[in-house]
Design a protein that fits this description.
Elements lengths: L4 H15 L8 E6 L2 E7 L5 H13 L5 E7 L3 E4 L29 E4 L12 E4 L17 E7 L1 H7 L4 E4 L2 E5 L4 E8 L3
Antiparallel strand pairs: 1-2, 1-10, 2-7, 3-4, 3-10, 4-6, 5-6, 5-7, 8-9
Length: 190
């Protein structure tokens, strides 16, 4: 009985394939809000600094009790830094921009908010309500780092996008009735 070279190689490779560890699922975080739950899947392989930063804030309880303080229909909802009385929470510092990671600011993606300078993201994040390609990294310069995607609760995100907004101090597009992140917690992937 003759065995082909391809069959021999397949037989030899089989035990190796059985020994390779299964890829770990991407981490997921549930944002329990006053409008319902949102579950996001994070992409540590594409944005390791942003994911580690976000998870550090989640695990420390930092996001518990903060609000979505900026809601712009047909654009995005932003949160992660202000309390219901519009006070800025102290953050741990700024992180390097990872917007050149190949991920796009498409509907449902989670990205780091930042100031005008590229490497100024800290705790604040936003969820895109539509494809916002103008926020991506390009030859013109740095964009905004996408580091995850909503996998459950996009209807909640869309509901938040419809709330009435006002101006409070120097902040525009602030929900009249606060949309609170009651709790943020790491959850098991399904």
């Amino acid at each position: 009985m003759k065995l082909s070279l391809a069959l021999i190689l397949a037989i030899l490779a089989a035990p190796l394939a059985a020994q390779t560890p299964e890829a770990k699922p991407n981490p997921r975080v549930m944002l329990e809000t006053s409008k319902g739950n949102i579950v996001v899947e994070l992409y540590p392989d594409k944005a390791p600094l942003s994911v580690a930063n976000f998870l550090q804030y989640v695990k420390s309880g930092f996001y518990n009790g903060v609000i979505f303080h900026r809601v712009i229909p047909d654009f995005m909802i932003q949160g992660g830094g202000l309390t219901p009385d519009m006070k800025q929470k102290p953050t741990k510092g700024q992180i390097k921009n990872e917007s050149d990671n190949g991920l796009s600011n498409d509907r449902g993606t989670l990205a780091m908010a930042r100031l005008g300078e590229p490497h100024t993201a800290s705790s604040q994040f936003y969820i895109n309500l539509k494809d916002n390609r103008g926020l991506n990294h390009s030859p013109r310069g740095w964009g905004y780092t996408v580091f995850g995607r909503v996998v459950e609760g996009m209807d909640v995100v869309d509901s938040i996008a419809t709330v009435r907004t006002t101006t409070k101090g120097h902040q525009e597009n602030v929900p009249v009735e606060p949309v609170i992140i009651k709790k943020a917690a790491v959850v098991a992937a399904k």
